[in-house]
Amino acid sequence: MANGTPFGNFGYLGNFGYLGNFSLFPPCLHQMPSFCYSAAMCPAATDSADYLHNMRHSLAHVLAQAVMKLWPDTKPTIGPPIDNGCYYDFLFAKPISTEDFGAIEKEMRKIINQGQTFEVDALKVDDAIAFWKEKKQPFKVELVEDLKAKGETKVTNYRNVDAKGQEMFVDLCRGGHVENLKEIPADGFKLMSLAGAYWRGDEKREQLTRIYVVAFPSKEQLQTYLKNLEEAAKVDHRKLGKEMNIFVLSETVGPGLPMLAPKGAVIRQELEGWIRGELKRRGYSFVYTPNIGRADLYKKSGHLSHFKKDIFPLMQAEDAEYVLKPMNCPHHVQVYESRPWSYRELPQRFAEFGTVYRYEQSGEVGGLTRVRGFTQDDAHLFMCPDQMQQEIEGILDLAFYIYKTLGFENFRLRLSLHDPANWEKYIGTKENWKLAEDALRNALEKLKLPYEEAVGESAFYGPKIDLIVKDVFGREWQLGTIPQVDYNMPERFDIWYNDKDGTKKRPVMMHRAIFGSFERFIGVLIEHFKGAFPLWLAPVQVSLVPVAEAHEGYAHDVEAALKAKGMRVTYFESTDSLGKRVRESEKQKIPYVLVLGDKEVEAKSVAVRNTRTGKQEVVSLDQFIAKTAKDVDERNLECSIG
Amino acid sequence: MANGTPFGNFGYLGNFGYLGNFSLFPPCLHQMPSFCYSAAMCPAATDSADYLHNMRHSLAHVLAQAVMKLWPDTKPTIGPPIDNGCYYDFLFAKPISTEDFGAIEKEMRKIINQGQTFEVDALKVDDAIAFWKEKKQPFKVELVEDLKAKGETKVTNYRNVDAKGQEMFVDLCRGGHVENLKEIPADGFKLMSLAGAYWRGDEKREQLTRIYVVAFPSKEQLQTYLKNLEEAAKVDHRKLGKEMNIFVLSETVGPGLPMLAPKGAVIRQELEGWIRGELKRRGYSFVYTPNIGRADLYKKSGHLSHFKKDIFPLMQAEDAEYVLKPMNCPHHVQVYESRPWSYRELPQRFAEFGTVYRYEQSGEVGGLTRVRGFTQDDAHLFMCPDQMQQEIEGILDLAFYIYKTLGFENFRLRLSLHDPANWEKYIGTKENWKLAEDALRNALEKLKLPYEEAVGESAFYGPKIDLIVKDVFGREWQLGTIPQVDYNMPERFDIWYNDKDGTKKRPVMMHRAIFGSFERFIGVLIEHFKGAFPLWLAPVQVSLVPVAEAHEGYAHDVEAALKAKGMRVTYFESTDSLGKRVRESEKQKIPYVLVLGDKEVEAKSVAVRNTRTGKQEVVSLDQFIAKTAKDVDERNLECSIG
User: Fold this and answer.
1) Which of A486, A526, A619, B83 sits in a 20 to 30 Å window from A251, CA-based?
2) Beta bridge partners of residue B353, listed in sequence order
3) ipTM, 2 decimals?
4) A296 to chain B: which residues are within 8 Å by CB?
């Protein structure tokens, strides 16, 4: 990942949040190092995270030791800890299957119970190369040779020794372990799955077998995790999205190119309308730009050279080459530079629901969350340097308003900063970096938001804040980037404004997206709400169930009254049984079922069944309309009737 | 034009309405035959249209005669009448310039005043070939040879003879002339411009010089036309759109790929919001589909073979070829076919603001109206055959509501039918064609809408109604297609619904677009309103002009009050003179200027200057808010204050 950010190659607003099947493809797969040797690649361990990291890291050694005991001719490669456990990649002489998991786990428990400890040997690189050659471990040899090529003179091996001091296993490793393997809870881990993985991610190299392990400090925590996993699978947006007719995939259209069916379009339009209104209130203006541009535009922006493999193949037209845009910024810069701006007119905040395309490998795409085409709720802000902090505060305020309204309560903020040891990696002056990093930090401090600093995790073109959201299953999602400062684009396009003193100055540019992309956000919401959307977002809000044919006239009156208020209504004719129609409404996760019989016709009332609470309440039609209108206007999470 | 429709190669919702510089590029350039010999290509002449056609056609002969007299070594090619006059394409031995127009016009008047008449010679094709070879006119030879190849056995030459019976000029022609050239008003025509044109539109053939002439029955009519032209040039959307910061063109993004700047985006969002609400009220649902699809999709739909040259070059990805979509229908069909439908669920009306791309030649693009990328307010309706008429009525009702609200009062409806002499050209059964044509005709009759029938002008896949709108300058614009019946797409994708009797039936599909495309429609509206948009569409609605610094506090209160109501406001600080700020507001065509001085501060009132009427009125702030809100809600064309 060229620019040091974990969220896709573009450094921000990337395709990869935490979604997906999070057992087979752990959330952190795109976030964590694939080779744990280099300490710079392992985030600094802190407090309890320290124990978790060391325990999971040690468990990877246990896994490798067990595998080597069972199949001694296996070639181990690397095995880092990840957010929920660890994995290890092996080259097996003969394929293994999940049926072998029992034997491996048994062996691992045995090793843990032996109470082995770690001992470290510091070796000169050449000695280490000789050592691993002697051991006939070609992958380890390659790793050390690479370290040597990078200028390392020493490396470390970690040996597991038993109580008698006998060596049981040795691995090339930088360290970060428990002292005694007994600190690993023998009933707190579980082998989860197998996956294929190329050595060093290179499809031309050896195809390895990756074993995923989940690991927690206690059996109870493991069980909670596994239960959450099971619950999460039930609300997998790919399953629910199909059942609820929210989106459509078509092989003929192409993988990673989901279409929103009418019910999904309702959700998107509600989200669009909501944020559009908020943006206008907050002084944003909108722009519309095409999905393509000439290759020259992306040469100038630098995307074509930096991110070519993530861009769809160029279109070779007679007059020029055209690019399907991977991001909206170059176009927004074109709008900015189409006229001169005075400092009095800044900040300019250009928003667009911009559809972009990135050529992910087809094996990596699926559902609404790993896609090749997606629409960002994108914006680019152009400002004077002294306006940075205020703009950052505005963006954070908007993001928290949006997420809290949707019931996300657990947040984590990460401030990604430059690496002071590597100034040559970055564009922009040190002075400007300090200005931007201070503005980001001061905004977080002023709003009293807790955050972690990630030194060296910024993009090469500027620092940023990422918002990581935790859902009801405790899974973390990287959604918006709020914001990403950019010193590169203004420089490359030579944009400016007229300052007070009459001179031309370079504006600061910020990228930001709150939802990230509508596709992924809708995917997250489906799972977050388990399909049971709050009233204002529900594709169908009310189902009408006349008890018998005699009540259909009234039911149609109710339908007309609700539709006149803009409510989304489904009408169930009385041909099927009452029970069946109510059940069908529940299955479709329609918030309210109105059962209409003699009493309701007489009293002009409606018998409301709240499918979320299972409770019933009879209210007048007017009351029903007033209460639902209030819930919709206020975007309440609960349905307040019944 | 493969399928007999004049509006772009796709047959409907095409790129070409009547916009553009209508003198240099006459509106009918894409509508009229480039070779007038074949009567089938010249629309049937009627009544006064008959005289106009014959007069303009005869004038083309006069033009050619004059040119040949002045430069005898010129090779004439073809010269048809067009909507506002005629043109003729010549191969000149030496280039001419508009400075020669005086001499040509003088010669033409002399010819007209001689009172020449037309005489006709019917010749066998071979004799005609010999005749034109003898005359050393290679283009005429080629035309006759082509006619021979098509099976024609006879052709006609028309000779102009003077009062003494002496031949003055001869041309290959099918006829349709005045009897005596004196019937052409010598002061009713004017040479307008020169343009390059390839022989037979083929860029590999000779490059010719085209002379455009405008011609009317009287000097007065010519002058009115020229004056309209001058007025229209002032409101040319390309000029006004730039002055008003509505859209941005960038060479680096590419020709024909306009971007909407913030002020243009306001107009588009108002139009979007309006029609989105109307569509929901009228039972449409929305879908969202990507801008690309695999080539297989367009092979299946037939677009790739029929319209390849109009599609952007394919993207050759590793897993498949991808197409930048030229239209939305194949995607909408994919959404339809993603689940089964019962007859009880039909009609389904899928709408999308779908952005499509068509590779027009770069010389043909410009402004907002001749573009390569545009967003259609598209919809596809899937219905049972017996629902056709009702759906057509619904579409017509919507179209008339939209256009009338915008102040378009002059309409022309054209019902394009199949050609009964060429059944082999069409897809679909005769029975289905009758059903569809009857439904279209019956809907027009029921709504008592006058219309013309255009036999043989339908697409090969179904009949349609086009709505042609006349603007304040009398120019006609083809905007929406309302609707186009399609028997091709359902057949190719084999889509169906479950009918009452339990069998699978083929639904009828209709394409329709009301605005056509947002880009073109905004271009039309800029010219239609001469930049002075009605309050609800105006990018900026109110300008605030405090008389002096002392009034700025109150002015900011007014600003806040208006913004809280969602009004779009510009604030002019008191640093410039009052007159300058008012003039600047008028220049920007802001509907209302609020001048705020001592009296207004005291009375909590606003002195309103209506820039449209030039009148002033003092009203309370509350009254101003109430009245403007009403004008916006009702989408009134007039600003009712002042």
Assistant:
1) A526
2) B377
3) 0.81
4) 252
